[in-house]
Design goal:
CATH topology: Mannitol-specific EII, Chain A
Oligomer: single chain
Number of strands: 6
Helix content: 40-55%
CATH architecture: 3-Layer(aba) Sandwich
CATH class: Alpha Beta
Structural class: alpha/beta
Distance between the termini: 11 Å
Order of helices and strands: HEHHEEEEEHHH
Number of helices: 6
CATH superfamily: Mannitol-specific EII, Chain A
Number of domains: 1
Shape: globular
Largest sheet: 6 strands, mixed
Radius of gyration: 14 Å
Length: 152
């Protein structure tokens, strides 16, 4: 499972948002254009997952995720926030790097493999520094893709 399998260049964005809810709404809008599913359905799925426990994993990173019956494959959206927002992260620090992952309901092992891959990528402080320093979305995408090439 590679990042390039999950993430297309048009699903990498820089966002200006002031709250967790606004971030999730913007991510749902982008995910809707990538997946062809309804924005509201995606947003509701993300909210439902957040109610189970925060997806803010610490160090300024969040990995919101959910499963949707109508999806045929795994899809990702990556966002770097202009200014960090409170995401109820486990370390109480605000979040500025977010990787949204959506999977089909039946994608048990694949969903877990994708979450593990994204987690490994964002757990590396050097990768996060590069992502925070990228000048534009093309730069963000290249950092995300180059990290997988280096790991190979």
């Amino acid at each position: 499972m590679e990042i390039s399998d999950l993430l297309q260049p048009d699903a990498v964005v820089m966002l200006k948002a002031s709250s967790k809810k606004q971030v999730l709404q913007e991510l749902a809008k982008i995910a809707a254009s990538v997946t062809g599913l309804g924005e509201r359905k995606i947003f509701d799925t993300l909210l439902e997952r957040e109610r189970l426990g925060t997806t803010g994993v610490g160090n300024g990173i969040a990995i919101p995720h959910g499963k949707l019956a109508d999806l045929t494959g795994l899809h990702g959206v990556f966002a770097r926030l202009e200014k960090p927002v409170d995401f109820d992260a486990i370390d109480d620090h605000p979040v500025d790097l977010i990787f949204l992952l959506l999977a089909p309901e039946q994608a048990g092992a694949d969903h877990l493999k994708a979450l593990a891959r994204v987690s490994r990528l964002l757990r590396d402080p050097a990768n996060c520094d590069k992502l925070r320093g990228a000048a534009n979305t093309d730069g963000l995408y290249m950092v995300l893709i180059q990290t997988e090439a280096q790991a190979a």
